[in-house]
Amino acid sequence: MRPGWVKALVIAGCVLLSITGCGSSGKTSMVSGRAVSGLYDPAQVGGLPVSDGPSGPRPNAPAPTGTVKNTDNGEIDHLALLSLNDIEDFWQQNWPAAAKKPFKAVSTVVSYDSSDPSSPIVCRTKTAGAINAAYVFSCNLVEWDRGQLFPAAKKFFGDMAVVGILAHEFGHALQVNGGLVNTRTTPTLVMEQQADCFAGVYLRWVAEGHSSRFTLSTGDALSHVIAGMLKISDPIMTEEDYEQSEDSAHGSGFDRVSAFQMGFNSGSGTCAKIDTDEIKKRRAGLPVALQEEASGGADPGEVTINEDTVGTLVEILNKIFSPKSPPTLSFASSSCSDAKPTRGASYCPATNTVVADLAALQEIGKPGGRKGMTDPQMLQGDNTALSIVVSRYVLALQHERNLPLDTAVAASRTACLTGAAQRGMTQVVSIPSGKQLVLTAGDLDKAVIGLLVNGVAASDVNGENMPAGFTRTIAFRGGVLDNVDECFDRIA
């Protein structure tokens, strides 16, 4: 967030290893209810049932085939080759109708250890120090770092995160070998988001149970894959830096998750249609760069979470939504006769009060970092905490319409309305106090991290959240990209 009198908004949450979809009580059960749109159905993930259980290589998976150059014959290379076998099998059977050339397999796969100074040169490029995975179109090869990148991805996000990274890289092979892009003229942003989208198409096939090599549960495991995409998104830059590197940008975490979910929900035809115009339309009005500080560096966009900040936020929400009876804001803990407390902030329908727990919000809002894949704190910051306050406020909007607040549908609608509020905060909102709190680049990523790690912003009045992080994120995105009316019309 960017205030006129304080710094911008970014939020902190729980550690990466605790992505479990827990509400304030740690439960994931929901009262029955069904959203009008299947996309927002709390019991589904893109039309598939919510499931938790084993995810990763099947115990009876066939042995990987093919040769990995420069391999150490270890566990990581075994997993990577098995992944590429599966991904290539899928695309051989499901080559996009939009492709202008027939299926073509990747010619070479190469493993290296980025921590080894003597790591080889691959396709005329040094791999020592390259914590990366890539498709190199000039040599039609896929390469990966077995030393640092994949071990960290596996440790913090699970085996399917490694599979997801390689599905993205094969998405680039599909683009080039299928004639869907021109490597000289197609912007990197378009190529990257198409590849994220193609990864979503493949991983849905796995989630449907079609793969002979892997399983993917649509609950916790898929949330980990999404969290991994957020972690490896582009760093947020200043407007000047962004303009200079726009042609080579991969996109924000929110961009990447959007593209992945488009593929998971709608198939490869949707991926092939992603172009500059589609991305600009999808991003319309959303900030993509940070403000510059007087020193010339990037303002990280963090605000101090205190009574002034939360009070300003509620003032802004009153102006965005204009409820007939705005909820009262309180910082004093008190019992509520018709709702349970939730961590960070709660809503009491009986008194129409939003109760903010500053100590909890400050803990949730501690900034995380972009210190590489080995940083388990993720991309948390102020908006991870402040989006919780927003989610309790929008329960008051639903209460004003006499809608039930203790159902799964209420949880889904809450996520959507929280997203709609975030859209409203992309511009300066004039309020009586004259203060400001404006969404800045990266804030949406931090809200999404909150949706994945604690789920409060996608929970009902008692803190019971939607069981699948994927669907929480879909509902939130629906509010960001559509409007308030859509949240009430499509989630009922």
UniProtKB/TrEMBL annotation:
One family name in Pfam for this protein: Zn_peptidase
Leader sequence segment: 1-23
Disordered, as annotated region: 47-72
UniProt entry keywords in alphabetical sequence: Signal
InterPro entries for this protein: Uncharacterised_pept_Zn_put
The protein's name: Peptidase
Organism: Mycobacterium asiaticum
